[in-house]
Design a protein that fits this description.
Blueprint lengths: L2 H12 L8 H8 L6 H4 L5 H10 L10 H7 L7 H16 L4 H19 L17 H6 L1 H17 L5 H14 L5 H15 L5 H15 L12 H10 L8 H30 L8 H34 L4 H9 L2 H8 L1 H13 L8 H18 L4 H12 L4 H17 L4 H11 L8 H17 L2 H12 L13 H7 L6 H9 L3 H17 L13 H12 L4 H9 L1 H24 L24 E2 L2 E2 L2 H11 L6 H4 L2 H7 L9 H11 L30 E2 L5 E2 L2 H31 L19 E5 L6 E6 L5 E6 L4 E5 H5 L9 E3 L6 E7 L4 E6 L3 E7 L6 E8 L8 E8 L4 E7 L3 E6 L5 E6 L7 E6 L5 E6 L3 E6 L4 E7 L6 E6 L6 E6 L4 E6 L4 E7 L16 E6 L7 E6 L4 E5 L7 E4 L6 E12 L2 E13 L22 E8 L3 E7 L4 E4 L1
Parallel strand pairs: 25-31
Antiparallel strand pairs: 1-2, 3-4, 5-34, 6-7, 7-8, 8-9, 10-11, 11-12, 12-13, 14-15, 15-16, 16-17, 18-19, 19-20, 20-21, 22-23, 23-24, 24-25, 26-27, 27-28, 28-29, 30-31, 32-33, 33-34
EC number: 2.7.11.1
Protein name: non-specific serine/threonine protein kinase
GO molecular function, one term: protein serine/threonine kinase activity
Length: about 1150
C-alpha cells in the first residue's frame, strides 16, 4: 500500500465511512478538476486533517515517506508513547505465535507497566477513586487514555476464543483495571458486551466474577449518552435474569451480593437520562410547550421507573426464595437497605419484609436467622413505625432462639430500634418484661446487650415511667439500687452473678424441667412464708427430681440460685421447647435428605421384583462354610434351584441356569473379547460395592451380542445395566450373610446360661471343701452350660473342676485338670472361643489361651502373647466377647492400656489409652452389645469408652475417691454399672449416662453414704443374677461373709455364710431407704447370740470345723447340675461349694 492509498483509508476511518473519492472523482482529481477538501473538513482534529491532506496530494513527489511522516508528526498526530512504548509492545503480539490465553496472561502481567507508560498519574482514577466520568473531557486531553483503546482492542479480540478458566478470570481483572482510566462511552460500548458474554460462560467462577466486574464497572459510569439511555431495562437486566436460577450457588451468590448496587446504578442511569432530556436547550419552545414537555418527561420517567422496579423485583423475589440459604444471607447482608431505598416504603414492606419474615422458620441455619436480625434494623428504619406490630412476634421468637448468638443479635436489634423510637411505650414495657430475666444468662454478650436494651428503653421513657414501671422490674436483678439507670457500665456492674453455665445447660436438656420448676416454686413459697431465722421445712421430692436436685447441688445450686432459675423460668421453657421442635424438624429433614424412596407413596405404580438373598454363592465367591451349612439345613435342597430364588420377570432377565452358570465377570471378559476394543467400559469400585457402569463415548457395536444374562442386548449400555444388577445382588447377599453371622453369633444358644429357678435361694449349707492350691485364688470362672469351673491361683496354676462328677460322689473332691505352664502368678482368667477355651494372664506379662479338652486331661495352648512388664505392664483384668466377625480378647494393664486382641488374627483389633490422671485400672467390663466399655481405677473413677469411636465419653468419680475393686454391667438396666469400692462393703449402681448413683448396697456400721468414715472391709467379688430370674446379687469380700441381696424385696436379704472366725452368731436385718436420691439397702446388726462352747456342755462327738471361709473371699460363681450351687474361692487357696 502506498502513501496515497493509506491516506484514503485514514480518511474513510475518521469520516465515519465516507471515502474521499469514487472512480469518477478520482479521475477528475487526477486531471485537477476535483478537490476532496469538503470530505476532509469532516475531520475535527486540525493536525490530523492536515496530515491526511498532505498524504492525498496529487503530486507523488510532494508526499513524504512513511518514516518521514512518523518523524514529522511526532507529538502532533502520533503521541510520544507510540515511539517509546506502545508500538514495540504491540508488535510483540503480532510477531510472536501466542495463543489467546497466553496473550491475556501477558497483558495481566504487564498491566501496571502499561498504565504507567500510557496514563499520567495526575489523570488516573486509580490515584483518586472519587474521580469518575466527570473527568472524561480532561482524560480525552490526556493522550494516554486514548492509547488504552489499543490495549482494549487487543484484549477484547481474545475474549471469545479463551479456553482456560484462569485466562478468563485474568481478562475480567484486566477489564476492571482498565475501566478506571477509560471514558464512560468506551465502557458501555466496548467492554459491556464482553462482560455480559462472560456471564454466560461454562465455568461458574467466571460467571460469578463477570457479575462482580460488571457491577464494579457500571458504578464508574457517571454520564450516560443518549444512545445508551435504556441500556439497563433493554440490555443489561434481561441478560442477567437467568442468573437468578443458575445451577451454581456461587453465581447466585454473586448476583445477590451485587443486585442492590445494580438497582441503584440503574436508577441513577434513569435519573441522568431524564435530567439530560429535560435540561436540553430548545429556544423555539414557548413556556407552555416547555411545561408540556416537562409533564411528558415526568410521565415517561414514571413508566420507565415502574418497568425497572418490576424487573428488579422479579430478580430479588427469586433470590429471596432461593433454595440455598447462603444466597438469602448474602442478599440480606450486602444491600437490603439499598433495595429499600430503591423500592420505596410500600414495596419494601410488601416485597422485602414479607420475604424476610419467612427466614425465621428455618430451624437449621442459625446464620440466616442471625443475618435477619442484623438487617431488620435498616428495613424497619426505612419502613417506619408502622411495622412495629409485625416486629414484636419476630423479636420474641429471636429471644427464644436455640442459638445464643442469635439471641444477642436480637437484643442488639431491639436496642437500635428502641433508640430510633420505633417502639411504642406499651411495647417497650412488654419487651422489657420478657428480656429482663436474661440478666441472669451465663452468656456475657447476652447480659451486656440486655443492659444496653434496658438503657435504651430508659432513654425513651419519662422520669415517672422509669420510677414507676422500669425500676420495679429491674430492681430484683440488682445487688443495690441504681440511680443512673441509663448508664450501661453502672447497671452492668450492679447486676447479680449469673447462673453457672453447667447448670444452665443441664436445665435446658432436662426432660422433666416443668416438674422441677414447679417444685422449686413450692420451695420458694415455703421460704417466703417461714419466719426469719427458722429453716423452712421442705416436702420430700419425687425420686427422679431428687436425683436432679442433687446433681444441681453438686454444680453449686443454692437457694439464691433457685430464685434465679425461677426468674428465668419462661425463658428456659421456651428454649427447651424450641430445641425440641428444632431437633424434630432436623430429624424430619434428615429423613428427607437421606435418599430413601418410599415406593408405596409414589404416584407412578412401580412393579416390584424380588430375589432370595439366601443363596449358596454370591457371584463367584462362596459363602462361609458355617453359613452354608446353616442355610442348607434351614432351606434344604430347594435352594439349589435358581428358579426358586427368582420370580418370572427376573428369570427372563437373568436367563436360564446355563446362562448363569458362569460368573458375570467371566462372561463380561468373553463379551469384551468378541467386541471391538474399547466398546464397553465397566467401572467397579471395591470388592463389596458396585458403582455405575458407564459406557464409553465410542460405544457403537455393529452387531448385537449375547450378554451374560442370556438375552440379546443391542448395546453395551444394556450389558452394563445387567452387570450393575448382578454386582448389586452380590453386594446385598454378602451384607446379608455378614449380618446373619453377627446375629447368630450374638444369639448362639451355646453362649446362653441356663436360667436359674425363679425362687432359688442359697441356704448356706456347705457341701464341698477343696484345698489344692498353694497360693491365693485370684479368679473363679464357671463355664456356662457345663458342670465345669476353673480357678487360677498365685501358685501359677489353673485347675479345672468337674462338679458334676463330684456331686455323684463317685470320686474324691479333686480337680479334673491342672495347667501349670505359666511364669509368675496367674492374676486373671476368662472363658473364650465358644466356651471351649480359657484365657489366662500372669504378672510376668504372659497371656495364653488353652483349649479345654472334654475327653482328655491334656491341655493344648492355641494362642499366646507376651508383654514386657516394664514397657506394657502386667495384665490386671481379662474379658472376651465374640462379635461374629471378630473374637476379641480384651485385657487391661497397670499402665492404663485396654487392648483388644483378635484371636482369629495376630494383630491388635484396637487399643484404648486411659489417662494416667484417672489412676491405675483395677477392673473393667464390656456392654453385652459391645457398644461401650467401663473401667474402674484406683482413684475411684469410672471411665466409660465408646467402642465404636474408641473415645472416652464420660467419667464418674466416687464421692470419697475410694479405690474401685470390681465393676459389672447390670443385666437389666441399660446403662447401669455396678461398682464395688474400698471400704464399708459398698456396692453401688451407677447410671453411666446421667452420672447418677441409683442404688447402693451397704454392709457397714457407719451411716450410709458417709464419706469421712469407713470400715476396712470391702467387697471383692459379685455375682449378678440373669435377667430371667428375680434381680439379686451375691457378694463376698474381706469380712469373709457371703451375702444375698434381694433387689425387689430388700427385707428378704440375708447372710448366706458367715466367716469361720466369728465366735458369735450374727443376727442382722436389712432395710431400704432413699438418701439424696439414691435407694440404699443397708445391713443392720441387731445383736449377737453367743455360740455354745465346749466348756459349758460336754462334747459327745468331735467338734465340726467352721463352715465359713478363713480368709478374704476373692471370687464367687453359681453352677448348675442337678441342683444349683454357689462356688466361692478365697485368698488362702480354698474352694467351697454351697447349696
Amino acid at each position: 500500500m502506498d502513501i496515497f492509498s493509506l491516506g484514503c483509508v485514514l480518511t474513510e476511518l475518521f469520516t465515519e465511512g465516507h471515502p474521499p473519492f469514487d472512480f469518477s472523482q478520482l479521475l477528475s482529481y487526477r486531471s485537477g478538476e476535483y478537490n476532496p477538501s469538503k470530505i476532509l473538513e469532516k475531520i475535527e482534529d486540525v493536525q490530523l486533517r492536515e496530515f491526511i491532506g498532505h498524504m492525498l496530494r496529487r503530486d507523488p513527489s510532494e508526499r513524504l515517506s512513511a518514516e518521514e511522516y512518523l518523524e514529522s508528526q511526532r507529538d502532533r498526530v502520533f503521541p510520544q508513547y507510540l515511539y517509546t512504548f506502545l508500538y514495540d509492545y504491540v508488535k510483540e503480539f503480532a510477531t510472536l505465535a501466542l495463543t489467546p490465553d497466553e496473550k491475556v496472561a501477558r497483558l495481566r502481567q504487564d498491566i501496571h507497566a502499561i498504565l504507567y507508560s500510557l496514563v499520567s498519574s495526575k489523570h488516573s482514577r486509580a490515584a483518586d477513586p472519587s474521580v469518575g466520568c466527570e473527568g472524561d473531557h480532561e482524560e480525552r486531553g490526556n493522550p494516554g487514555s486514548d492509547g488504552l483503546l489499543i490495549v482494549v482492542a487487543l484484549l477484547t479480540s481474545c475474549l471469545r476464543t479463551l479456553k482456560q478458566l484462569s485466562a478468563k478470570l485474568q481478562a475480567l481483572e484486566l477489564m476492571k483495571e482498565l475501566t478506571l482510566h477509560l471514558s464512560c462511552d468506551i465502557i458501555l460500548d466496548r467492554l459491556l458486551p464482553y462482560m455480559l458474554y462472560l456471564v454466560n460462560d461454562k465455568y461458574p467462577r467466571v460467571r460469578a466474577a463477570a457479575v462482580e466486574t460488571l457491577t464494579a464497572c457500571l458504578t464508574l459510569v457517571k454520564t450516560v449518552p443518549r444512545s445508551d439511555a435504556n441500556v439497563f431495562p433493554e440490555y443489561i437486566l434481561p441478560n442477567l435474569m437467568h442468573v437468578t436460577q443458575d445451577n451454581a450457588v456461587i453465581v447466585r451468590m454473586a448476583l445477590a451480593e451485587n443486585i442492590a448496587v445494580l438497582a441503584e446504578t440503574a436508577l441513577r442511569f434513569l435519573e441522568m437520562t431524564t435530567q439530560h432530556e429535560v435540561g436540553s436547550p430548545d429556544g423555539a419552545n414557548s413556556e407552555v410547550n416547555a411545561q408540556a414537555q416537562h409533564h411528558h418527561h415526568q410521565g415517561s420517567f414514571e413508566s420507565e421507573l415502574q418497568a425497572l422496579h418490576e424487573m428488579i423485583q422479579q430478580a430479588v423475589s427469586t433470590l429471596l426464595s432461593d433454595s440455598n440459604n447462603i444466597v438469602k444471607q448474602m442478599l440480606l447482608e450486602k444491600g437490603i437497605t439499598q433495595l429499600c431505598v430503591f423500592f420505596g416504603k410500600q414495596k419494601a414492606n410488601d416485597i422485602l419484609l414479607s420475604h424476610m419474615i419467612t427466614f425465621l422458620n428455618d430451624k437449621e441455619d442459625r446464620h440466616l436467622r442471625g443475618s435477619f436480625f442484623d438487617s431488620i434494623v435498616g428495613v424497619s428504619a426505612y419502613v417506619g413505625w408502622q411495622c412495629s406490630p409485625i416486629l414484636k412476634p419476630l423479636l420474641q421468637q429471636g429471644l427464644a432462639d436455640t442459638e445464643e448468638f442469635v439471641i444477642s443479635k436480637t437484643l442488639r436489634a431491639m436496642t437500635e430500634l428502641a433508640q430510633m423510637g420505633l417502639f411504642r411505650k406499651q411495647m417497650l414495657y412488654e419487651l422489657t418484661a420478657e428480656t429482663i430475666s436474661l440478666l441472669y444468662h451465663p452468656n456475657k454478650w447476652i447480659r451486656q446487650y440486655t443492659v444496653g436494651f434496658v438503657c435504651a428503653v430508659t432513654a425513651s421513657l419519662s422520669l415517672a415511667d422509669i420510677q414507676c414501671k422500669l425500676k420495679p422490674m429491674l430492681q430484683p436483678y440488682l445487688k443495690h439500687p441504681v440511680i443512673e439507670v441509663d448508664k450501661e457500665v453502672v447497671v452492668l456492674s450492679s447486676v447479680h452473678e449469673p447462673l453457672p453455665r453447667i447448670m444452665f445447660d443441664y436445665l435446658i436438656k432436662l426432660p422433666n424441667l416443668p416438674n422441677l420448676l414447679e417444685s422449686l416454686r413450692d420451695r420458694q413459697v415455703l421460704r417466703s412464708i417461714v419466719r426469719a431465722g427458722h429453716p423452712p421445712s421442705y416436702s420430700e421430692m419425687d425420686h427422679t427430681l431428687k436425683s436432679v436436685y442433687r446433681r444441681l447441688q453438686s454444680d453449686g445450686m443454692t437457694e439464691s440460685m433457685e430464685d434465679k432459675i425461677l426468674a428465668m423460668k419462661e425463658h428456659l421453657l421456651k428454649i427447651q421447647k424450641y430445641k425440641r421442635s428444632a431437633s424434630e424438624s432436623g430429624k424430619a429433614d434428615t429423613k428427607l435428605r437421606s435418599g430413601e424412596i418410599n415406593l408405596e407413596k409414589l404416584y407412578v405404580p412401580v412393579k416390584c421384583r424380588s430375589t432370595d438373598l439366601l443363596t449358596l454363592k454370591m457371584g463367584d465367591e462362596p459363602l462361609p462354610t458355617h453359613f452354608q451349612n446353616r442355610v442348607s439345613k434351614r432351606r434344604g435342597p430347594a435352594v439349589e434351584s435358581p428358579q426358586v430364588t427368582m420370580n418370572e420377570d427376573w428369570q427372563r432377565m437373568f436367563g436360564t441356569v446355563e446362562a448363569r452358570s458362569s460368573s458375570p465377570q467371566k462372561q463380561l471378559q468373553l463379551q469384551q473379547q468378541h467386541s471391538p476394543a474399547g466398546d464397553t467400559e465397566l467401572h467397579v469400585s471395591g470388592a463389596e460395592s458396585a458403582d455405575s457402569a458407564v459406557p464409553s463415548s465410542n460405544t457403537s457395536p455393529k452387531q448385537p451380542h449375547k450378554s451374560f444374562c442370556g438375552i440379546a442386548v443391542d448395546s453395551a449400555h444394556s450389558l452394563s445395566c445387567h452387570a450393575e444388577l448382578q454386582l448389586l445382588l452380590k453386594k446385598k447377599r454378602y451384607e446379608f450373610a455378614r449380618e446373619q453371622t453377627i446375629r447368630e453369633a450374638s444369639d448362639d444358644p451355646s453362649k446362653e446360661e441356663k436360667a436359674l429357678p425363679s425362687k432359688w435361694r442359697p441356704r448356706g449349707t456347705l457341701v464341698a471343701h477343696m484345698h489344692e492350691h498353694r497360693g491365693a485364688i485370684h479368679r473363679l470362672e464357671v463355664i456356662p452350660n457345663t458342670s465345669l469351673f476353673a480357678t487360677c491361683s498365685a501358685d501359677g496354676s489353673v485347675k479345672i473342676w468337674d462338679w458334676g462328677r463330684m456331686e455323684k460322689k463317685t470320686i474324691a473332691n479333686r480337680s479334673r485338670q491342672t495347667y501349670a505352664r505359666m511364669d509368675g502368678q496367674v492374676t486373671c482368667m476368662c472363658v473364650c472361643q465358644g466356651m471351649q477355651s480359657l484365657a489366662i494372664a500372669s504378672d510376668a506379662g504372659t497371656i495364653q489361651v488353652f483349649r479345654i479338652e472334654t475327653a482328655s486331661t491334656k491341655t493344648t495352648v492355641v494362642r499366646s502373647r507376651s508383654l514386657d512388664p516394664h514397657e506394657d505392664g502386667c495384665v490386671v483384668d481379662l474379658h472376651h466377647f465374640d462379635t461374629g466377625i471378630q473374637s476379641v480378647l480384651a485385657y487391661a494393664t497397670v499402665y492404663g492400656s485396654i487392648v483388644g486382641w483378635d484371636l482369629r488374627s495376630p494383630s491388635t483389633a484396637w487399643n484404648l489409652e486411659n489417662n494416667p490422671r484417672n489412676g491405675v485400672i483395677t477392673s473393667f467390663c464390656v456392654d453385652p452389645q459391645h457398644s461401650w466399655l467401663v473401667c474402674g481405677t484406683s482413684d475411684g473413677k469410672l471411665v466409660c469408652w465408646d467402642m465404636r469411636f474408641q473415645l472416652p465419653i464420660n467419667t464418674i468419680t466416687h464421692p470419697s475417691g475410694s479405690r474401685v475393686r470390681q465393676v459389672h454391667v447390670d443385666p437389666q438396666y441399660q446403662s447401669g454399672v455396678w461398682a464395688a469400692v474400698q471400704g464399708n462393703n459398698e456396692v453401688s449402681l451407677w447410671d453411666m449416662e446421667t452420672e447418677a448413683r441409683l442404688r447402693t448396697l451397704w454392709a457397714s456400721s457407719y451411716p450410709p453414704l458417709t464419706e469421712c468414715q469407713a470400715t476396712p472391709h470391702s467387697i471383692f467379688s459379685m455375682y449378678l443374677s440373669p435377667v430371667e430370674c428375680g434381680p439379686f446379687m451375691l457378694t463376698g469380700g474381706s469380712d469373709m461373709n457371703i451375702r444375698f441381696w434381694d433387689m425387689n424385696n430388700p427385707l428378704s436379704s440375708y447372710v448366706v455364710a458367715g466367716a469361720a472366725i466369728d465366735t458369735h452368731t450374727r443376727v442382722v436385718s436389712y432395710r431400704s431407704s432413699l438418701i439424696d436420691g439414691t435407694r440404699v439397702i443397708q445391713e443392720v446388726r441387731n445383736n449377737y447370740s453367743k455360740k455354745t462352747s465346749g466348756a459349758e456342755e460336754p462334747r459327745r462327738y468331735p467338734e465340726q470345723p467352721a463352715a465359713g471361709h478363713n480368709d478374704c473371699i476373692s471370687d464367687l460363681g453359681v453352677i448348675q447340675t442337678s441342683q444349683t450351687f454357689v462356688v466361692s474361692a478365697s485368698k488362702n487357696g480354698v474352694v467351697k461349694v454351697w447349696k
